[in-house]
Amino acid sequence: MRTVIHMEPEDDFRPVLRMIESDIGIQSSNYKEDYLKRRVQSRMRMNEVHTYRDYLLLLRGNPPEQEALKNGLTINVTKFWRDPPVFDAIRRDIIPELRRRKKAIRIWSAGCATGEEPYTVAIIAHETSIMNKDLKFTIFASDIDEEALMKAKEGVYHKKALENLSNAQVRRHFTERTDGKFEVKPHLRGYVRFSRHDLMSGIPVTSHLDMVLCRNVTIYFTEHQKDELARMVAPALTAGGHYVIGKTEYLSRDFERLYEPVNQMQKIYRKRA
Ligand SMILES: C[S@@+](CC[C@H](N)C(=O)[O-])C[C@H]1O[C@@H](n2cnc3c(N)ncnc32)[C@H](O)[C@@H]1O
Questions:
Q1: Closest Cα to residue 165, out of 258, 87, 106?
Q2: pLDDT digits (tens, 9 = 90+) for 215-268
Q3: Which of 27, 124, 129, 249 has CA 20 to 30 A from 67's CA?
């Protein structure tokens, strides 16, 4: 059932706008007010809050909700090595474990937006393969948004998107163009297969996956849709395969029989045997 949001005359949106500027760090004048209201109202529905005043109270001193609203306002926003501890954990803990028992590793970046996430995984794959020549990685990357996918295939980025990478990684994996942008080198492109795919279709892009990253995608999904997604991913994973979700996302308790946490903090789960 949809939550009704009451627009009382005294329920002023301006304090929310000020909060978006000061605490979330988004220049609200860059967006139409209607657009901002729609996004804020979507978060209000998710939280079952009915007035801007109550939402503001919820937002104050609540970093996870601030992050969720930020994601909602900047729907395609992503960057290389977004949330560094997650990708550090994947590189340090998950990939070595997979490497010990597999020769071909298959990974799906579901909701890949403009490609920074699958190319980040490709960087990890490439750096792992240097020491393990017989290892093969395939990275499937999908999104519902054709425009985002086109940019992903182009693989050309502003410097800001690369700020979590080391200088050595930038030099190794990108070519700096004359317009100051950075283009991913062919060796990274070679790992990634892009396709358009709707995560609500109930069907995965492929199967026998060793890891599925579905991060910062489900902000507009209902609880039911989130559950359906987690249910759809499980059979596509190999035994012991990993499911990685966003820092502000969560798996409902019903899924404890399907997935066990490997790194609770970084929201990395493993399919149970
Ligand atoms: C904020 S981006 C996340 C990008 C990346 N996963 C990350 O964490 O940086 C969210 C992406 O989810 C995609 N998305 C939203 N609903 C989707 C759906 N039903 N199926 C596939 N992709 C979807 C959007 O198009 C958007 O590109």
A1: 87
A2: 998 866 778 888 999 999 999 999 999 999 998 888 988 888 899 999 999 999
A3: 124
> Shortest CA distance to 154 belongs to which of 110, 196, 123, 116?
116
pTM for the structure as a whole: 0.79
Binding-site residues, ligand 1, Cβ < 6 A = 71, 75-78, 82, 111-113, 117, 143-145, 148, 198-200, 215-217, 246
> Smallest Cα–Cα separation from 50: which of 250, 58, 70?
58
Tell me which residue has its CA closest to atom 17 in ligand 1. Answer: 144
- The Å distance, Cα 221 to ligand 1 centre, comes to 11
256: which residues sit within 8 A by CB, 6+ positions away?
A: none
Query: Cα(198) to centroid of ligand 1, in Å?
Result: 10
The minimum-distance atom of ligand 1 relative to the CA of 116 is 9
Query: Which residue type, as a one-letter code, is found at position 29?
Result: S
Domains and CATH numbers, the chain: 14-73 (no CATH), 84-271 (3.40.50.150)
